[in-house]
Amino acid sequence: MKLNEIAEKLSCRLEGDGDIEITGLATLETARQGELSFLTNPKYFSEAKTTGASAIIAGRDCPPVTISILRHENPYLTFAKAIEIFHSPPPNKPFIHPTAVISETASLGNAISIGAYTYIGKDVIIGDRANIGPHCVVYDRACIGEDSVIHSGAVIREDVKLGKRCIIQNNAVIGADGFGFAKQDDGTWYKILQAGSVVIEDDVEVGACTTVDRAALGETIIGIGSKLDNLVQVGHGSVVGKNALLCAQVGLAGSTKIGNNVILAGQVGVAGHLAIGDGAIATPQTGIPNSVEPDKIVSGSPAIDHKKWLKSSAVIGKLPEIQKVVRDLEKRVVKLEIIFKVLPEEKMTQFNQ
After folding, report:
1. Which tens digits make up the pLDDT trace of 188-236?
2. β-strands 68-71, 13-15: how paired?
3. For the chain, how many structural domains are there in total?
4. Can you tell me the distance from the alpha carbon of 66 to that of 272, in angstroms, rounded to the nearest whole number?
5. What strands, in cross-sheet order, belong to the sheet with 287-288?
6. Which single residue of 47, 106, 148, 341 has CA 20 to 30 Å from 19?
């Protein structure tokens, strides 16, 4: 495909030769003649000057380079759409594998696919064009929305409601029992029946091996458009707002409230029964013991304002030096105290003057 055609498809401003034939995409380091690359981070500009690519996707403020540029105000999004030009997934062909076990009371939509050795329980509802991979389990009374995709090994437990156009990656578990136990008089733990459910709203993606636990009462909710990375744990009764981003190994304790457009970076841990306000951001490995205000950026464990954390982090490397100074000052203070004790009274008066 010629570069000028790609520019038109992606609504980019073309700088350079539009007649170049582009055969695919590659990174700046590995790109060769005839390939399109991308520059979404200014720190890689030096690689852009030496890349073997025939053209790059870049932002409006990118300095000129010796090759053609497709400019856009959102180069990362443009790159994502460019991948689809060259790597369109094959269309889903409706097919139910003969080894799939499907309850007679299940309601199946039009043009659905169900893979080998998948189990569909009683009174399950599957919307049109849904695609359920092999070795999946859909428990009784679960509901799967239109155009949703459930990859192999995933488990959708009883009464779970999955919205439209959702993606559940491999081995995710939606609706497992919440972690609830009451201590008995003899010191043993009594399991609290988890009688609630999980609601996954439209356009949500749940990563591989992620777990979203059902509530003891009521619902655990993942809001419209939110994305959960691999190995995320959402505790029972939690609510995640719209368009939130929970990166790998994030853990939410039970009854946590996550606002709209919140970003929790990798390995963030959130204590239960608190709220993270709309637009808040927690940087990697932040431990959050208290509620966070809207639009706040927090870091560290326990979490503090990100700017304060940066200053604190800068001091940490100097702590041995600071400790040495403090010890020297302590020794000098002790010496001064000794001098004050042994000096005659008239000398002390002169010293004070």
Report:
1. 999 999 999 999 999 999 999 999 999 999 999 999 999 999 999 999 9
2. antiparallel
3. 3
4. 54
5. 101-102, 119-120, 137-138, 155-156, 173-176, 211-213, 233-234, 251-252, 269-270, 287-288
6. 47
Residues 301 and 154 in one domain: yes
Domain end position, chosen among 58, 86, 114: 86
Question: What kind and span of H or E run contains 252?
Answer: strand 251-252
One domain, residues 25 and 164? no
Per-residue pLDDT of 98-126, as tens digits, reads: 999 999 999 999 999 999 999 999 999 99
> Average pLDDT for residues 281-308, to the nearest whole number?
93
Is 192 a domain residue?
A: yes
173 in the same domain as 251: yes
Instruction: Give the C-alpha separation, 85 to 78, whole Å.
Output: 11
Q: Are residues 121 and 148 in the same domain?
A: yes
Q: Exposed (0-12), middle (13-18) or buried (19+): which is 303, by Cβ within 10 Å?
A: buried
Q: Is the pLDDT of residue 353 over 90?
A: no
Catalytic residue among 87, 135, 151, 236: 236
Pairing of strands 269-270, 304-305: unpaired
CA atoms in the 13 A half-sphere facing the CB of 95: 10
**Which pLDDT score is estimated for 291?**
97
Domain termination residue (choose one: 86, 116, 141): 86
pTM (global) more than 0.90: no
C-alpha–C-alpha distance, residues 19 and 24, integer Å: 15
- Domain span holding position 254: 95-306
CA pair distance 345, 353, nearest whole angstrom: 12
Q: Let me know if 151 is a catalytic residue.
A: no
The verdict on 148 and 23 lying in the same domain is no
Domain shared by 35 and 154, yes or no: no
